[in-house]
């Protein structure tokens, strides 16, 4: 038995040793050992319900599978090179050694590695989605916590990387939190499509022993069974969608990281990463580099590449199973592990990030209130297109004089438009400016706190 491949009965010639290695996936799909054993235990129970196994045979299979599982957990499972080509082969081979092949050999009745691997991936991925949900939720909790604590900090908001209007630092945090919240919502919407049970589909045409697939799905915690056996063994859309979700998330992580990288430069000086998430230079002693943020930005490209590569693998495959589908796991595993690590790093960075409120406020300049100046006239009944022009004229006048628009006199303003009065000086108040942005979603204190509450309710 130890020298016999699961599919070897058809063949008389020897396999090229290079082909044996090329064909093996055990070195990476072994991480699904638990999912594979769970699927086998449920399948054994279904075989007993269909009178294929006696109660004794079922009991022995369950006992043996638990022993195999304990070896994996204790890190004592020994992989046999050249024999254990994948996790399914390895587990079945070891099960036969523990309880005898006369019983273990019945476990695969009506089952193919095609529906077996599809089931394993879905179980494994379902568990990863649960972990991703928890980690992303933790990150969002840090976001809303900092947004509440640092609600009074003002900073420039930017368009085209040019200072535009004053905003709250908390408003910036909640902007990114809004993206991450949609990521969390998409992840939760993805789970039901992952959580479908293909076991019982056989190689492609279905199961010949009338197994109760609904029972199997219930045993394994699936929401439903896949509705078509061909689809059940060939479908990898749930992997594509997971990788698409990962790519979208990492694009948000990258943009968040890019903002903080810019804010951490000496030219800005708004934030500093903790030492735990920074490194130095091998040549320049003064350097403190935001490497964690740069790696987050860089690893987004890695995730994009895994998605693109697998899409190319998948796009031309005929129904149903093809060996090309073995190439689904490495990009998926790498993609998921990269996202999990990235979210943990991002959480650590944000939890320990030091901000410099004084430098943020010092970066605010009166010209950022030019729109408020236009709005001042709007409130006096002047059409906005006219006030926009008047405000622009004030900016130009200040530039010509080498001063800020807040330093122009009331007389200067009245020379630009008759509706200006003494109270125009009240426009040049950054706190008042942000508080005027009080429509839903704005940067006023009340609005930002509403955004915090919205995210908190959805976590």
Element order: H for helix, E for strand: HHHHHHHEEHEHEHHEHHEHHHHHH
* Structural class determined from secondary elements: mainly alpha
What global shape is seen?
Answer: elongated
Helical run tally: 19
Strand order of the largest sheet: 1-2
**Helix proportion:** 55-70%
The radius of gyration is 31 Å
User: What is the residue-averaged pLDDT?
Assistant: 95
Give the N-to-C terminal Cα separation.
52 Å
| Count of distinct strands | 6
The residue ranges in which pLDDT falls below 50 over 5 or more consecutive positions are: none
Q: Sheet bearing the most strands, described? A: 2 strands, antiparallel
Question: Which percent range describes the beta-strand content?
Answer: under 5%
What layout of secondary structure does this protein have?
Blueprint: H1 17-23, H2 26-29, H3 33-49, H4 55-73, H5 87-99, H6 101-104, H7 113-149, E1 154-159, E2 162-168, H8 169-194, E3 196-197, H9 213-219, E4 224-225, H10 229-234, H11 237-264, E5 271-272, H12 291-314, H13 329-352, E6 354-355, H14 357-362, H15 370-378, H16 384-401, H17 410-416, H18 430-436, H19 445-458
Parallel strand pairs: 3-4
Antiparallel strand pairs: 1-2, 5-6
Helix pairs in contact: 3-4, 3-7, 3-9, 4-5, 7-8, 7-13, 7-19, 8-11, 8-19, 11-12, 11-13, 12-13, 15-16
Structure description:
With about 450 residues, the protein is mostly helical. The protein is built from 19 helices and six strands. It has helices spanning about 15-25, 25-30, 35-50, 55-75, 85-100, 100-105, 115-150, 170-195, 215-220, 230-235, 235-265, 290-315, 330-350, 355-360, 370-380, 385-400, 410-415, 430-435, 445-459, and strands spanning about 155-160, 160-170, 195, 225, 270, 355. The strands form three sheets. It has a two-stranded antiparallel sheet with strand order 1-2. Strands 3-4 form a two-stranded parallel sheet. Strands 5-6 form a two-stranded antiparallel ribbon. Strand 1 (about 155-160) and strand 2 (about 160-170) form a beta hairpin. Helix 12 packs antiparallel against helix 13. It is elongated, with a radius of gyration of 31 Å. It starts with 16 loop residues before the first helix and ends with a helix. The model has no long low-confidence stretch (mean pLDDT about 95).
